[in-house]
Each structure stands twice: as structure tokens, then as C-alpha cells.
TrEMBL record:
Keywords: Membrane, Transmembrane, Transmembrane helix
Full protein name: VanZ family protein
Transmembrane regions listed in the UniProt entry: 12-31, 38-57, 77-95, 102-121, 133-154
Domain VanZ-like: 45-148
Tagged with keyword DNA repair: no
Cell membrane found in the keyword field: no
Length: 167
């Protein structure tokens, strides 16, 4: 269903990625001063991730695991969607913890765990794919880089508590 939507509207994934790249550091800078909110948003960002990767489907699996290595491009909407899927959770976890490298590792390991579950539970109707892991890992890297930028900006331009400008 989501693949059909993405194929019908190929501009959607690049637009979402652009919004994340442009808005991520700005929102992340604000969230760096509100870690509880960042953690809550992180938890919420895991819901689509779980729904899109681990909820059983009625699809019949012909191949349990596909091993191939293709980089995501704007024309490969499913791979680009896999990139986007991991940007928000890693960005939010990195900003909340102020540890982008730890969040990056968590994203890469988490993606591998999802692919492992898909491989071990064929009843889910999902098959593991190294391309998915690679795309998810690229998304995790983007999320960590955006978080690093947000944390750097928060340190460079600290929040002014109680400052209101009156003219």
C-alpha cells in the first residue's frame, strides 16, 4: 500500500527528506533544551518504524533474504523510503542523549535486528534484504549528522532564558 503511494507520487520521498534535512537541525536545536520532549518524540517515531517493518502481511514470501547492494536514489522509492524511516528516530535519540555516535550505532544495529527478525519469522510475510539494512543505515547516518549539527548549534548559540525583546 505505501509502496503504491510512493510509486504514484515519486516526489514525496525526496520532499520529506528535504524537509528533514532542512528542518532537522532547527527542531533538534530546540529539542536539545527539551530532552523529555525529544525522548517522547523518539518513542513516537518508533511506531511507524515497527508498523512498516514488523507487522505481519498477507504476502507470500518466495525469497527469505535477498543479498544485494544498491544505493538509494530518487528513482528507487522504496529504498529512499527506508532511508527516511531511520532519520527521525536517530536524530531524536541523538539530540535527547547528546550522543550522535551512540544513536547512529543504535540505528544501524536496530536495522540489522529488524532484518534478522524478518529472516527468522517468515510468518510475518516479510523478507530480509541487505538493501533495506544499507538504506536504513544511511538514514541513521543522516539522522546522526543532523543531530550533531543541532547540538553544535545549541552550544554555539545558547538559549537566552527569560529574554524578551521590547521595542
Amino acid at each position: 500500500m505505501i509502496s503504491t503511494l510512493l510509486v504514484a507520487h515519486p516526489w514525496f520521498s525526496p520532499a520529506v527528506l528535504a524537509v528533514l534535512v532542512l528542518g532537522g537541525p532547527v527542531v533538534g536545536r530546540w529539542l536539545s533544551w527539551h530532552p523529555r520532549t525529544a525522548w517522547a518524540l523518539f518513542a513516537a517515531s518508533l511506531l511507524p518504524l515497527v508498523l512498516l517493518t514488523l507487522v505481519p502481511t498477507s504476502r507470500e514470501i518466495f525469497e527469505r533474504c535477498a543479498v544485494s547492494w544498491s544505493l538509494p536514489t530518487f528513482g528507487r522509492v522504496e529504498l529512499l523510503a527506508n532511508v527516511i524511516l531511520f532519520v527521525p528516530p536517530v536524530l531524536l535519540a541523538a539530540v535527547a542523549s547528546r550522543r550522535p555516535v551512540v544513536a547512529l550505532v543504535g540505528g544501524v544495529v536496530g536495522s540489522a535486528a529488524i532484518e534478522l527478525v524478518q529472516a527468522l519469522l517468515p510468518g510475518l510475510g516479510r523478507s530480509c534484504d541487505t538493501n533495506d539494512w544499507l538504506s536504513n543505515s544511511i538514514g541513521a547516518l543522516i539522522g546522526a549528522a543532523l543531530a550533531w549539527t543541532a547540538i553544535w548549534a545549541a552550544r554555539r548559540w545558547p538559549r537566552r532564558v527569560g529574554s524578551t525583546s521590547r521595542r
